[in-house]
Amino acid sequence: MSSHRQWQPLVAELRQDHLCIVPDLQGYGVPASKVLGNFATRDYQMADEAALVIDAIAELQLDEPLSIVGHSFGGALALHLAMTKPFAIKELVLFEPVAFHLLKTNGLPQCQELLAEVQALAEQLPKLDNLDAARVFIDYWQFDGFFSGLPLRMQQNLAEQVSKVTLDFQALIGEPLLLADYQRLNLPLLLLSGSKSRRSAQRISELLHQTIKASELRLVATGHMGPVTDPALVNSEICSFLRRGMA
Prior knowledge:
Helix content is 49%, strand content 10%. By secondary structure, the protein is of the alpha/beta class. Strands 1-2-3-4 form a four-stranded parallel β-sheet, with helices on both faces. Helix 1 runs parallel beside helix 11 (231-246) and helix 6 packs across helix 7 (152-161). The longest helix is centred in the last third of the chain and has 16 residues, at 231-246.
């Protein structure tokens, strides 16, 4: 439940040597109700989320492969784009991509327990009014009481967007790819994970790192919302990786 604005400090650092394209994901740049109305009869899919990004990139008619930076749901979307290859991608930087479908992998420690935790959260949100749903969701990723400490206008803004989170969970859990499928991903990948984050997010980053040969995994002393709460810490890792790829 963020927007392109969370990346403004990173863009300020990169714009001297990069063209930065910073889209809003569906339901976070426009009212979530405009997205919800289109999916009353079927589950939302990662392909639905990817469609607007693909169209936006096509309109730019770029000649060079893209480096993609993604956080949380945006990180899972970046993985989807890398696997489906609608345009050329040079490298990925992902801060805790919440590709929850990977927790369905049988026989791996913690996965079934963490999947049950995530599914319980996903099932709880539609049963609450928007303000309570936003509180539960934000406090899950931060800590109990965090939402109540936010300014009232920010609480209201988050409540206006929280209905899109239900669609996000549908797409994330329903993605059909298996963990083994990601062995095909053969491009440089930096995985960043918060040392203070939820285990559900940390475990996914670990699974991807164990599966993708060209990946690096680094722990950052922050939580799941590190790109927002500790941008200097996170952005230094991102810039270092991207500029290494330019050398």
